User: Which sequence fits this backbone?
């Protein structure tokens, strides 16, 4: 599990580096050094995922963990593998994909293959924010939604109570 956490951290750092490289390319700055770092990180990520697969297979086959726990961990490894493939695709596609995705929204589909959610243009309110800032913004939005849901819940509870009182009054009048 600690290797899994370390691998997740590598994936996150790689995504940050790809985002930084794309930002440099949009601004016309050189991104050659970042490309080398990203390539190395992607290779490291692939090796860690392969290591996780081997350790998981060994743990399940020697009954060190239950089959249910093995399945749960396999799902985690599969998610990491999917993320690695997405990162690899976003690394290879450079900065051209967002325009294709944006134009595909109006035409009914992407013309040249699979879309990559890692390369979608970010909004003005999130542009330039790091992952921690994005998490804080997401938490703030969730807290606002929770407050709205609490208010809605209290209104619905009050309406339920009023409906029950009306029903009781009707029964009494009948």
Assistant:
């Amino acid at each position: 599990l600690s290797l899994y956490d370390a691998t997740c951290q590598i994936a996150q750092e790689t995504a940050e580096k790809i985002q930084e490289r794309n930002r440099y390319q949009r601004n016309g700055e050189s991104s050659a050094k970042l490309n080398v770092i990203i390539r190395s990180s992607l290779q490291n990520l692939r090796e860690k995922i392969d290591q996780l697969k081997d350790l998981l297979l060994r743990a399940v086959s020697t009954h060190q963990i239950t089959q249910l726990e093995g399945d749960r961990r396999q799902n985690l490894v599969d998610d990491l593998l999917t993320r690695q493939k997405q990162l690899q695709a976003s690394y290879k596609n450079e900065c051209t994909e967002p325009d294709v995705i944006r134009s595909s929204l109006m035409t009914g589909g992407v013309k040249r293959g699979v879309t990559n959610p890692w390369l979608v243009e970010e909004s003005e309110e999130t542009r330039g924010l790091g992952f921690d800032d994005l998490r804080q913004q997401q938490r703030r939005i969730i807290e606002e939604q929770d407050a709205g849901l609490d208010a809605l819940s209290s209104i619905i509870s009050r309406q339920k109570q009023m409906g029950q009182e009306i029903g009781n009054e009707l029964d009494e009048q009948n």
